[in-house]
Amino acid sequence: MLTVDVSETPAEAMPPLPGSLRPIAPLGVPTVSRRLVLTEAMTMNAASGETVRRLTRQERPGARMYHCHILEHQQLGMMGIVDVKA
C-alpha cells in the first residue's frame, strides 16, 4: 500500500509490460473527477521495458484503488491501494 498526504501529488510508477494499454478509467464507463470526464479514449500505451508514471492530485483523505482489467497484469503489480492521509 502506498500512503501519501492530501497535500502531496504522488506519481505512481507502473511496471513495464510489453505492448500494454493502460486505461485511466474503466473502458466504456466515463468517470467524473474534478469536473473532468475521463473516457475510454484516454489511455497510455507503454512499449516493452518502458515505465509509465501518472500524476494524480488527491484532495480528500481515504483509500483509492487502482487496477488493470487484465488479470495477469494485476499479478505483476498493476493493482493496489493508495491510502491518502489528511
Outline of the structure:
The protein is mainly β and 86 residues long. 5% of the residues lie in helices and 45% in strands. Strand 4 and strand 5 (36-38) form a beta hairpin.
Task: Describe what this molecule looks like in 3D.
There is one protein chain. The chain has a single domain (2-85), classed as Sandwich (Immunoglobulin-like). It contains 1 helix and 9 strands, in the order ββββββββαβ. The protein has one helix at residues 71-74, and strands at residues 2-5, 11-14, 20-23, 31-33, 36-38, 43-46, 52-55, 62-67, 79-85. The protein has a 3-stranded mixed sheet with strand order 1-9-8, with no helix packed on it. A two-stranded antiparallel sheet has the order 2-7. β4 and β5 (36-38) form a beta hairpin. The longest helix has 4 residues, at 71-74.
Largest sheet: 3 strands, mixed
Structural class: mainly beta
Q: Return the domain count.
A: 1
Which runs of at least 5 residues are low in confidence (pLDDT < 50)? 9-14, 16-41
Which percent bin holds the helix content? Answer: under 10%
In terms of DSSP E residues, the strand content is: over 45%
CATH classification, class level: Mainly Beta
